[in-house]
Amino acid sequence: MVAEAVKENQAEAKPKIERQTNCLACNKLIKKLKRYYRDGKLYCSKKCWRAFIDKSKPEGNSSAIK
Fold first, then answer.
1. Where are the chain's structural domains?
2. Is the Cβ–Cβ distance between 7 and 24 less than 8 Å?
3. Model pTM score
4. Residue 37: per-residue pLDDT
5. CB within 8 A of 29, min separation 6: which ones?
6. Does the CA dihedral 28-31-36-40 come out positive or negative?
């Protein structure tokens, strides 16, 4: 009984860490074999990573001008 209670408390104490499952650029499912990891984020390919970077650059510049 005591061992069961300890296991239940450990399971409740650990929060679940959510993992990223979709590419940020194209929203495709990211498979384990095909991952492109940059700056703490996952993409499905280098092309999608570049597209995401290029898309976010104008937004950053326009907010700095305002």
1. 20-65
2. no
3. 0.59
4. 92
5. 21, 22, 23
6. positive
